[in-house]
Please model this.
Amino acid sequence: MSDILLSFILGLVQGLTEFLPISSSAHLLFPSLIFGSNDLGLYFDISVHAGTLAAVIYYFKNDIFLMSKSIFLNENSNENKNLALYLVIATIPIVIFGFIFKDFISQRIFSTDNIAISNIIFASILLVAFLNNKGKKTLVSITVLSALFIGLFQCFALIPGASRSGAAITAGLFIGLSLKDASKFSFLLAIPTILGALTLLVLDLNNENVAFELLNLSIGFLTSMICAFLTIKIFLKVVEKIGMIPFVVYRVLLGIFLLII
Model:
């Protein structure tokens, strides 16, 4: 497979799976498993993550503006100010755990079977959370403790196969948020989380002598950005209609498939 086509496929996979509760790490296995393709390098990882970050920032630009306005202009908008605070609180755990286990994670010792089993386990937990969710609370109902709970649960995303968005949505459902609001908080939480991951990737550039191909980076960035934006837009429109069961079934089947091959 050419690097140009691989760049497009990986950008597509990253854009689709970053925000859906289906595990990006499981899907990123397929190009190498099917085509035996090579790693495009650290610069490419940065470009596709930057693409998804750009997409979520643009989609929620109005929410970000209102949160920023409530903080920097000290406006009497407690709802927006509190949401910004809770997003910061929910980000802290994964920053701490990510820093502590950074070297362990970078070794990538998890096998395909580990990712498959993790996918099945966390899909099952998502199912339990969804079936027991009353769906009555909104983002206004979030407290410091519930934000911290979501943040701690999101740390499971450090395990390949767990799914960052899936973990955050699961935690949101456990505390009683509606499915749409749990998803929205998860997507907003992706902004500081992806930004933190990008920072670590950029810092890793100092430790490696890596080359890059501008065309591949551009394709990866644009593909992941466009795909991620459409994924967020469509998902938030239909999530309350379709629920989480289709994603749970898909993840279980995906996990079984990965165990078989």
Q: What stands out?
A: The chain is about 75% helix and 0% strand. The radius of gyration is 18 Å. The chain has one domain: 3-260.
